[in-house]
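Q: Could you fold this chain for me?
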Amino acid sequence: MNVKHKRPRLFVFAALTAAALAVPARADAVEDFYRGKTIDMIIPTSPGGDYDIRARLLARRLPKFIPGHPNIVARNMPGGLGVAAANYMMKIAPHDGTAIMAIFQNMSSLQAIGGPGVEFDVRRLGWLGNTTNSPNVINSWHTTGVKTIQDVMERELIVGAPGAASTSYIYPAALNALVGTKFKIVAGYPGGNDVNLAMEKGEVGGRGSNSLASWKSGHPHWIAEKKIYFLVQIAPERSDELPDVPLMADLARNESDRAVLRFISADIGVSRAFVTTPDTPPERLAALRRAFDQMMADPEFLADADQTRMDISPSSGETTQKLAASILATPPDVVARAKRIMESGGK
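A: Sure. Below is the predicted structure, expressed as structure tokens.
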């Protein structure tokens, strides 16, 4: 009798023991994979500027929190206003969690409108998290005499932009079409820093878009000395720091136009986000997301960010992934109107 009952009990014990060891085994597998590896940090801009600074800070601090502590090497990959880097992540980079990218915020909306050269799908990328929800702003330079958006309703303001697919082009173009502003957009600058230099030289009278966080970290003296004026903020709701600066969507003349401006504003929730490649094994994606969350609360990381006046107001990978996907779920008629505006330059 006793012999008959021992075998099933031993079997159950063995099964429970195997199950208990399964979770540590999976964790060890992630650690074993990353140990001695190098992760490429792909930066879709030239050196300098907020995207580059944030990505290089993550490259320094994130390895501490990834199992196996791999090295992370920054690689600048400018081209196509972020499209080249996103396509690289989709089609060329190893789909194993050894590549991370600082993704341009407008990649979701660019995909939604069927932008030129898009070969990526933001829904398939593995989103690690977003570092800030700071609003974007359109600004003027102090020598123009333009201090409010109402001024741009009455006279032309030349603003610089890296290219026609950048938010620096899209935002003023949308306001021209739907609100009646008189922005003249000069596109083709290599990057945002080049637009800043053009403002100082008097080549342009403002910048079509930049994040408030970037202005605060890169040129705080311009804000303090009133060398730049914020005309419009682009975000789901007004920032407490800019209570008197209108939202772009607030300027709409009707609900139909407001829906378009909200679509164009929606990507602020992923304004400084980081992603890994499609098909990264789930346990590695989960480990990278945990590492990102832990780093966002790390005193040494926050001290580094504070030294450069970098705004850190993070959201999780799961949250940013859902937001990026929701942009592609915008009603087709809204997307079609936004596309016409973006492609026509607001004319």
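A (continued): The first helix runs from residue 2 to 34.
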